[in-house]
Design a protein that fits this description.
This protein has 119 residues and is mostly beta strands. It is built from no helices and eleven strands.
Length: 119
């Protein structure tokens, strides 16, 4: 059974860093477009970062460009989101998704991990 499990969220002060992990089972992440989304209370879900199947092109929301980095470890079948210079407005539930590279439709969702940026 295919599954995505996020981890690494938590409480961090403004300016701090966190690294989120999204571990996949039942399918191979390198064959999918892997995407991090986030959803804050009362707001719509926002695409944060994407990494495609090879050649592994990346795309970022303007709000996180230069601060966040998405990467993939094929050996561990895991996708990461390194988040630096965190701001209070980055507070949200972060979700990992696997999209079909042909249709762009989400095939699998993770359960999400909470990130709270506060002093």
């Amino acid at each position: 059974q295919a599954q995505l499990v996020e981890s690494g969220g938590g409480l961090v002060q403004p300016g701090g860093s966190l690294r989120l992990s999204c571990a996949a089972s039942g399918f191979t992440v390198s064959m999918y477009t892997m995407t991090w989304y986030r959803q804050a209370p009362g707001k719509e879900r926002e695409l944060v970062a994407t990494i495609t199947s090879p050649p592994g092109s990346t795309l970022y929301a303007n709000s996180v460009k230069g601060r966040f980095t998405i990467s993939r470890d094929n050996a561990k079948n895991t996708v990461y989101l390194q988040m630096n210079s965190l701001k209070p407005e980055d507070t949200a539930v972060y979700l990992c998704a696997a999209k079909s590279p042909s249709s762009g439709a989400v095939r699998y969702w993770g359960q999400g991990t909470q990130v709270t940026v506060s002093s």
